[in-house]
Design goal:
This protein has helices spanning about 20, 30-35, 45-50, 70-80, 90-100, 145-150, 155-165, and strands at about 5-10, 55-60, 85, 105, 120, 125-130, 135-140. It is an alpha/beta fold. The protein has a 7-stranded mixed beta sheet. Helix 4 crosses helix 5 (about 90-100) and helix 6 (about 145-150) crosses helix 7.
C-alpha cells in the first residue's frame, strides 16, 4: 500500500513539553475545538492560531510527559497537525497519538530543524527532507501496517473498516 508523503512547516519546541500545556485542564469541560485553540499557548501563544493543516511539530526529549490525558494528542489532531517528530515521547502520549491517527516519528536529529523550515516526510521509509536547508534527516520509520492504521484515522476507524470489510470477524456471545 502506498502512503502519502507528509509536508508542512516546522513548529519547533524543546524538551519535556508537558501534556498539561497541550490540553490545559481549565478547558476540559469545553469542546475539543475550544481545547485545541489553547494548545501550547503557555509556550507559544501563536501556535494554535497560526498552525496550518499539515504543519509538523518538532520537539526534543520526552514529548507529552505529564498527565495521561488523551486530549493532548486530540488537540493536535483537531488542529490538523500532519505529524510530530521528537527525540523521544512519554509512552502514553506516543500511543495516544498513533491510536488517534497522528503520526509520531522519532529522530535523534531534530536539532537540525529550525522553526518554519519546510519539511517533507515519507514515514514508512523513514525519510525526511528539509526543503529549506536541503538536508536529509534520519527518522525511525513507522511500519507499514501501523501507517495503515494512522491513515485510516486511528485505531477505532481502522478496526471498523476491517470489520465492515469482513477482514476481522466479531464473535457475539
Amino acid at each position: 500500500m502506498k502512503h502519502k508523503l507528509l509536508k508542512g512547516k516546522a513548529w519547533v519546541f524543546g524538551d519535556e513539553i508537558n501534556s498539561d500545556v497541550m490540553a490545559p485542564g481549565i478547558y476540559f469541560k469545553e469542546s475539543m475545538d475550544v481545547m485545541a485553540s489553547h494548545c501550547l499557548e503557555a509556550i507559544d501563544p501563536l501556535f494554535a492560531k497560526e498552525v496550518r493543516p499539515g504543519d509538523i511539530v518538532v520537539a526534543g526529549r520526552n514529548f507529552g510527559v505529564g498527565s495521561a490525558r488523551e486530549q493532548a494528542a486530540l488537540a493536535f489532531k483537531e488542529l490538523k497537525v500532519g505529524a510530530i517528530i521528537a527525540k523521544s515521547y512519554a509512552r502514553i502520549f506516543y500511543r495516544n497519538s498513533l491510536n488517534f491517527g497522528l503520526p509520531a516519528l522519532i529522530s535523534e536529529y531534530v536539532n537540525e530543524i529550525r522553526p518554519k523550515d519546510e519539511l517533507i516526510i515519507n514515514p514508512v521509509l523513514g525519510e525526511l527532507e528539509n526543503l529549506t536547508t536541503k538536508k536529509n534527516i534520519i527518522i525511525s520509520p513507522i511500519p507499514e501496517h501501523l501507517m495503515e492504521m494512522i491513515s485510516a484515522g486511528g485505531l477505532m476507524p481502522y478496526l471498523k473498516e476491517k470489520i465492515d470489510n469482513g477482514e476481522i470477524e466479531v464473535r457475539k456471545k
